[in-house]
Specification:
Helix content of chain B: over 70%
Strand content of chain A: under 5%
Number of domains of chain B: 1
Strand content of chain B: under 5%
Radius of gyration of chain A: 25 Å
Largest sheet of chain A: 2 strands, antiparallel
Largest interface: A-B, 66 and 65 residues
Radius of gyration of chain B: 19 Å
Helix content of chain A: over 70%
Shape of chain A: globular
Number of strands of chain A: 7
Distance between the termini of chain A: 47 Å
Number of helices of chain B: 10
Oligomer: heterodimer
Chain lengths: 638, 289
Amino acid sequence: MIENTVMLLIIVPILFSLLFVALPKSLYKYLAWAFFIIGVALSVNLVLDGTGVVQIGEPNFAMFENIVLILEVLVILFILAVSAKYKNWPTLGLGIVSAALFAYTFTNVPGAEGASFNIDQFSQIMILIVNIVGTAIILFATGYMDEYEEHRHLHRQKTFYFTMSFFLAAMNGLVMADTLGWLFLFWELTTLCSFVLISYNMDEEGINNGFRALALNLVGGIALSIGIILLATKYEIITLSGIGTYAGTDAAAMAAVALPVALLCIGGFAKSAQMPFQSWLLGAMVAPTPVSALLHSSTMVNAGVFLVVKLVPAFAGSSLGTAIAVYGSFTFVMCSALALSQRNAKRVLAYSTIANLGLIIASAGIGTPLAVAAAIMLILFHAISKALLFLCTGEIEHTIGSRDIEDMSGLINKAPLLTTLAALGMVSMLLPPFGVLLTKWVSMEAASSNPVVIVFLILGSALTTVYYAKWLGTILSSSMDKNAVPHKKPETYFPLSFLGLAIVVTSIFVFSIYNYFIKPQVEILLKTAPVISGQAGQFTSEIGAFAYAAIFVVLALAVLIYLATKNMFTPRTSSYYMCGENNLEKDRLMFRNGLCSYEKSSVSNIYLQNTFGESKLTTLGYAISIILIVIALAGVGL
Amino acid sequence: MNTNDILLAVLVLIGAPIIGCIASGIDRKITARLQGRVGPPLLQPYYDVKKLLSKDNMVVNPSQNFYVVVYLVFIVLSLLMLVFKQDFLMIIFVYTVASIALIVGGMSTGSPYARIGSSREIMAILSYEPVLILYALAIYLLTGTFKLSAVVDASSPLLVYTPLIFIAMIVVLNIKLKKSPFDYSTSHHGHQELVKGMTTEYGGPGFATIEIAHFYEYVFLTGLIFLFWASNPIIGVLLGIIAYLLIIVIDNITARVYWQWMLKLSWSVLLIISIVNIAFLYVSGVQLA
């Protein structure tokens, strides 16, 4: 029964969060395994239940509505209390504004008679991401956190697992809720959870970054709640699907709701850390790696793009849609350029996340059936690849003690399985036949009718290739020192291998995924399906064809040829060519200098700090992104 | 897939390396004459490959030859996709796989020379990839599809509407063929100061594979120039040959520049003229008849 599954998806993670608090640390491993298995079972069950709307009417509604109100009050009180405690006045101010808006909503907006959860194919995909990728990350954490806390002398694992599990509950609620008031509660709950998780270390940096995340997301939340109030009072729209029904594909109705829709989108931009809100996600990397993985892949940032894609029927083809497309593609190119200049692996991944979310938003803004299909597919593929990459980075950090890309050279000799998985994650982000590139192809084909957007996408795409290629080359480069030993715990390596396998499987079955989930969803949103024909193994749109099966075959062929010819030419290993200067006793990478002593040669990648560095681009990014948002708002306000 | 397609595929698989080999031989011959030498026989590249294949398989990293195989296989795939008039955007992405495989292969050896060469080649990707995709975009704007069949079936040549992109593509050809002034990622022939860039640690059969892949790549890259006049195959082939000869002349009359210079040239001049061309196509709305 779909009602039961919906309720269970919210209640079970809360139950697990309480179990994590109640049970001792020695049992966390088993709890996480159980959570993973139940998460997979529940989310698959939701898909099997099919789509539908779950209405919550009297008499239960009154009770639930009271719970929602109490929770909202508690959230606001918590924000006020914590920002007063740490004397963070901007956050306190934003908290007071939120409280005022809540009071206004409570007194002036007419109450509803019922609430509803809307389970469509998009919600199903999101539930799969949250409950499979999300629980896999929690499982990884059980093999990661002990060592993390040991280094930092922390004992806060109860808080950690409680918040992580609660986060999944809030996220499940967010992607299923149709009633805007309830959606808003879940929205604020994810903001709160991310605040607790980012400030996990409780040092100055952690707390500052936590407050930055809280403040910027409160700005987004305020935009969201103003949008919701406008929709409820002016147009009597109280559900997310109601916006689509109201606007339809009718230009006049679209123009009427443009202002509240734009405000909802700004809420989404803040949540998805788009420029100018990107600093909170960059700051979030002070938290333990599982937190970053969770924020970047399966929860938090996905909530923002989820909302924007759901709003597609209210701006598809309008000038607001064009503004959103330009804004998203601008973030894509800007953050790709910033990622190029970073040496810190987590920062590269953070900018890559923001850039890819920008691509999703750009695709949603273009608003053609093909582009919207690309947006939803990208959310799925990006979540899996990015979760894998973040967890690998965390594990690499525990293996070699650094997250600097330059220190990762020779990783393939030190931890072959880990490196292979990380390489798979990177390859899946930029090369065919994997899903992310397929969606990039689709969005480029869809964007080709808008010259500004397509030029941004082209530049961003080249930059993306560059920053992943140099990282990929670095981890795969061999070196002669072998002093790091990977510790192979099943809790860490199982989620990594599982995510790696998921990348391959979803890329092979991309057409089935498209047919089952994405095509019906685009039909719901835009009333027309993308003109994509073809069968398993090939995508054929009206303007091109993507034969991904052929590439899989050729890739397999390359492996076969390599294995077959490997023994034809027996390799003879020799040392590097160093112009005859190798010092074989010490290290094969040593040169003799002018004083007849030896110096180690070292090479680093090119980072173009002077062109694409943060100091050069961030201000420009802020200025242009703010101008774009102001133009979008001015366009709908007038 | 019918018999004709299979025959064509086999013809490409066998014919392309022969053409590429001869093209490479012509290159060495012309270069030698321009430098006042007699030069090697026309089939010297073939003799080189034959000799390399008979040598020991010396490696510094047991898996380094895997990347070379990927490089070869994906170059062949992109050439086949070009011949079978597939989606051009897709061809560029497949071609990127080949380029990345060679770079990663160079880095995988861990040798400092190879790593310097590879980082420079990564910068080359940053320089040429946007221009290539803008070329694809021009084809889309002119025909309404990314499929190359529309370009080949059209009665008027692409070059008439895309002269600026053609100029940019000549430079891209120069970068991709790793010819002077952009030959810093694998230095060729006489100028050996960075040993041999990305391919420093390759020798024997592994290096032979790279050379064979280069033969295919020569044909693939001139094929991209051929597309500018695909409506008349004879003029198209002539255009490809002229472009190739032009690259050889440029190779001989220019000195190597810094990679920074290439990046500046590409992201200022090449991108701007390509975008101007795209803007013209977008505003005028012309279609390839």
